[in-house]
Write a structure and sequence with these properties.
With about 180 residues, the protein is α+β, with helices and mostly antiparallel strands. The protein has one domain (about 15-160): Deoxyuridine triphosphatase (dUTPase) (Deoxyuridine 5'-Triphosphate Nucleotidohydrolase, Chain A), CATH 2.70.40.10. Helix content is about 15%, strand content about 25%. It is built from 3 helices and 11 strands, in the order E-H-E-E-E-E-E-H-E-E-E-H-E-E. The chain has helices spanning about 30-35, 90-95, 125-135; strands at about 25, 50, 55-60, 65-70, 70-75, 80-85, 95, 100-105, 115-120, 145, 150-160. The longest helix is centred in the C-terminal third of the chain and has 12 residues, at about 125-135.
């Protein structure tokens, strides 16, 4: 399972491909590896690498669900991975990633450190099903199905900048009135 993912397109880059940072990917099994052959970077200008749900999942309204993505990554030093939903995740499935963007640090790379997407099903139909569950016996309650192989989120490799903290006195600058203020 050391074959790289075969891209559907030729990736153009400002630097030769052999000089790009290398993200190591371990697929948890051959079936998962096959699912990822249909994912990856989809267009020449795309920077997001699509990630897929690797098992059929059934979501209940407004409950946190961790969707397994079937891979463990080895992030190069000086980088971290950011994971965010695809633009179609809410439109097609009514789900949001609750900690978006999710940050994966380079030390999250052990044999049990599978990437997972933390989601919540919360579109209009989820709300209506939640109301229905309150008024109808549980056996009549439906859940939202996400099929194995569905592309739900994407990741990108981001350069990490280390920093030090220093004391700061904010009394010498204009106050914007706190969180949520536009300053106007």
């Amino acid at each position: 399972m050391t074959d790289p993912i075969r891209y559907n397109i030729e990736i153009r880059a400002e630097v030769p491909p052999e000089q790009l940072p290398q993200l190591g990917i371990h697929y948890l099994n051959d079936q998962i590896h096959a699912m990822y052959k249909e994912a990856g970077v989809m267009t020449p200008e795309s920077h997001g690498f699509d990630l897929v749900c690797v098992e059929d999942m059934y979501l209940s309204p407004f409950e946190l669900t961790l969707i397994p993505l079937g891979i463990v990554v080895n992030i190069p030093h000086g980088y971290h991975l950011e994971m965010m939903p695809r633009s179609s995740s809410f439109k097609r499935h009514g789900i949001i990633e609750v900690n978006s963007p999710g940050q994966i640090d380079l030390d999250y790379r052990g044999p049990n450190d599978e990437l997972r997407m933390a989601v919540m099903w919360c579109d209009k139909s989820a709300f209506l099903k939640l109301i229905h569950e309150v008024t109808t016996p549980a056996e009549h309650f439906d859940s939202k199905e996400i099929s194995a192989g569905t592309r739900l989120c994407q990741c990108k490799l981001v350069k990490t900048h280390k920093f030090n903290t220093v004391p700061y006195d904010p009394t010498d600058v204009k106050d914007r009135s706190g969180f949520g203020s536009t300053g106007v």
